[in-house]
């Protein structure tokens, strides 16, 4: 056992020879060993020091056999420090006394004279228990802090514009209910943040928040992912698996990109939402689920209903309350707040010291159309910070952006100029993918690096 494995130890016994022998043994293995022969000093010691393990004699001079004094002082220690790890020691131990000691809050019980190896092993186990107590306390404190942070008004959502204040008001009203919510808005506007804000302010905030990207789930895996499956139900079903509905039970289920579902999948989803129960693939057993449902999409679902590409009854089911997130170009007052937030965040990440934006840079950011919305702004700030020099960002650090609206960027449809055609195609791919460079590059058949070179070439 390595030096200092046993932390700080306090030994309380009226036998000075025992105290000396124990200290000589344990000081090789502990960070600190304190000894005390007078149990009346226990309250002072516990109140003024922190010990990892306390070794406490059960019998002192006034009562050498019953152990009553030991139980008295054990109770005193636990009242002062409920998480104290106490090992009782006695020369007259028996099974009944050991059981009573454990019921009274002792961690372990050891007879004297002890074997050195036995004492060290007992202390080693006690130290591990103390460390687990500390971890639980740490997690409890962290949870309290998280709950405290959640009480701060929308510290996770940045915005002071009139439209955002209206959204905050809607969240406050809807969060306290179990009403289904549909969040509409372009890619990159922060729909998941709104969903999490609703969950965090609901009576389900102590339960789980489960997010599902419906656009990333294939038709064949839809039922398995959402409703679960039984082992052997299909080729790759090697174990029983709970679906996302089961996992989200008692909590919030967030279905993102719900507008991407095909009509057959919409029908299956509607059935589950109506019945509030799921059946795993390969079984006939219905499992009830209790969830708060929040959905989101960047598609025009009301128009899709008119076109018969989205079920009207499903739309009624998921949008008891509807929240529309405006695009960033309609929230110009929020752009400086968001830009400065990302500036601070990425300056810390990349260990750079930027004081802010020059007027020319902020003017450019507020004129730009932001087809990718907040996500695109975030990426733009990050890229500028990586490449920029000096202590302020200016318009030249955003050379890859154009202040012109997206509608002015596209060349005439009848052009045969190859550069203009390529520029137009790239712009359409970026707009279509909400400013997501990775997705746009994949659709264009280019690498990210190749796409970035073309963006710079065309000033996009």
Automatic annotation (TrEMBL):
Keyword Hydrolase: no
GO MF term set: ATP binding; sequence-specific DNA binding
The keyword Nucleotide-binding is annotated on this UniProt entry: yes
Keywords: Activator, ATP-binding, DNA-binding, Nucleotide-binding, Phosphoprotein, Transcription, Transcription regulation
4-aspartylphosphate modified-residue sites: 57
InterPro entries (alphabetical): AAA+_ATPase, AAA_lid_NorR, CheY-like_superfamily, Homeodomain-like_sf, HTH_Fis, P-loop_NTPase, Sig_transdc_resp-reg_receiver, Sigma_54_int
GO terms (BP aspect): phosphorelay signal transduction system; regulation of DNA-templated transcription
Domain Response regulatory: 8-127
SUPFAM superfamilies on file: CheY-like, Homeodomain-like, P-loop containing nucleoside triphosphate hydrolases
PROSITE patterns, per the entry: RESPONSE_REGULATORY (PS50110), SIGMA54_INTERACT_2 (PS00676), SIGMA54_INTERACT_3 (PS00688), SIGMA54_INTERACT_4 (PS50045)
CDD domains: AAA (cd00009)
Sigma-54 factor interaction domain segment(s): 157-386
Name of one Pfam family that matches: Response_reg
Family annotation (SMART domains): AAA, REC
PANTHER family according to UniProt: ALGINATE BIOSYNTHESIS TRANSCRIPTIONAL REGULATORY PROTEIN ALGB, TRANSCRIPTIONAL REGULATORY PROTEIN
The name this protein goes by in its record: Sigma-54 dependent DNA-binding response regulator SasR
UniProt source species: Algoriphagus machipongonensis
């Amino acid at each position: 056992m390595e030096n200092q494995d046993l932390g700080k130890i306090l030994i309380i016994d009226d036998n000075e020879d025992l105290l000396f022998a124990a200290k000589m043994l344990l000081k090789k293995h502990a960070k600190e060993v304190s000894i005390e022969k007078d149990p009346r000093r226990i309250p002072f010691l516990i109140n003024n020091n922190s010990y990892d393990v306390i070794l406490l004699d059960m019998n002192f001079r006034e009562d050498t056999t019953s152990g009553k004094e030991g139980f008295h002082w054990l109770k005193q220690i636990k009242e002062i420090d409920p998480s104290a790890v106490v090992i009782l020691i006695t020369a007259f131990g028996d099974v009944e006394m050991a059981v009573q000691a454990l019921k009274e809050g002792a961690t372990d019980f050891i007879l004297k004279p002890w074997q050195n190896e036995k004492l060290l092993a007992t202390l080693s186990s006690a130290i591990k228990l103390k460390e687990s107590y500390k971890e639980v306390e740490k997690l409890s404190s962290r949870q309290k802090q998280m709950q405290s942070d959640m009480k701060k008004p929308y510290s996770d959502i940045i915005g002071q514009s009139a439209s955002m204040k209206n959204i905050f008001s809607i969240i406050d009203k809807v969060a306290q209910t179990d009403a289904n919510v549909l969040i509409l808005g372009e890619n990159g506007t922060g729909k998941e943040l709104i969903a999490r804000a609703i969950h965090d302010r609901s009576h389900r905030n102590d339960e789980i928040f489960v997010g599902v990207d419906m656009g990333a789930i294939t038709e064949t895996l839809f039922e398995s992912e959402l409703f679960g499956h039984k082992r052997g139900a299909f080729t790759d079903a090697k174990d029983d698996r709970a679906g996302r509905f089961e996992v989200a039970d008692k909590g919030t289920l967030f279905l993102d990109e719900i507008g991407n579902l095909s009509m057959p999948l919409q029908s299956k989803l509607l059935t589950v939402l109506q019945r509030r129960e799921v059946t795993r693939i390969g079984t006939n057993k219905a499992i009830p689920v209790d969830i708060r449902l929040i959905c989101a999409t960047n598609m025009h679902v009301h128009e899709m209903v008119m076109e018969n590409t989205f079920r009207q009854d499903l739309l009624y089911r998921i949008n008891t309350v509807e929240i529309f997130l405006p695009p960033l170009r309609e929230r110009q007052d929020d752009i400086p707040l968001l830009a400065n937030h990302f500036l601070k965040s990425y300056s810390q990440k990349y260990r750079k010291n930027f004081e802010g934006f020059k007027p020319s840079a902020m003017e450019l950011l507020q004129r730009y159309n932001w087809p990718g919305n907040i996500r695109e702004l975030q990426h733009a700030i990050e890229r500028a910070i990586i490449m920029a020099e000096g202590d302020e960002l200016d318009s030249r650090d955003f050379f890859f952006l154009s202040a012109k609206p997206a509608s002015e960027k596209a060349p005439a449809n009848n052009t045969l100029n190859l550069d203009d055609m390529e520029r137009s195609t790239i712009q359409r791919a970026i707009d279509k993918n909400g400013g997501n460079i990775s997705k746009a590059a994949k659709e264009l058949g280019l690498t990210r690096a190749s796409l970035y070179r073309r963006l710079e070439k065309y000033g996009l």
